[in-house]
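## retry 2 of 3
previous attempt timed out at serialization; input unchanged, resubmitting
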Amino acid sequence: MKRNFVQDLVFKYRLYGPKYFVIFSLIEIKRIILRTLKISYSQYGEDRWIANNIGKDKIKGYVDIGANEAIKFNNTYLFYINGARGVVIEPIKDLYEEIKKCRPKDTCLNIGLGDKRCTKNFYRLDPHVKSTFSKKEADKAIKSGCKLVDVQKIEIKTLQDVFGKYIKKNKVDLISIDAEGYDYEILKGLDWKKYRAKVIIIEDRSKEIDSFLDNNGYKLAYRNELNSIYLDYSK
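## retry succeeded, writing output
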């Protein structure tokens, strides 16, 4: 649903309440400053953390799952403008089309990912950042004030499919996953002994994910209000 600037402010105030509206507004101001200076495009500076601790030039390839927008709050755009290339996955059709326009040197896919190939219901919500394949997460978001726009049938592939078809010689340094409660299913869809990435950014936070990644050679290196960053310690 398209809103002008004033309508968007009113919507967010009603959705989040005065306290969180002020917090999100301050974050947005900071993000605009960082974006203007081309320092960070992630919501909470995750890309800047990686650039400072791993090295911006060390990220040559990525897979961005649930990218949402091409630039705003995006975990891979900083590396894109630095010359990195990758696969960007977004199930919302109009957002996918916008990503293709803004990032023509990336491979853009209008699909969903999971632990097996199938077709699943996709719950498109307003605001669109809350859209999800998880009915549980969709119901929770609706209860908190989000609006259900529609329910679509979306093709589901696995991360293994993406690596096998689009990634040459395993040149992936960063995997970013933002799937609103569906992150664990995506992680299970890859053979981690065959394919690796130096860094994983993931939004979902759980002991289940911590344990899964630890068992596959990744340790938690950084965690903020929203995302967790894991590094490959197997090498």
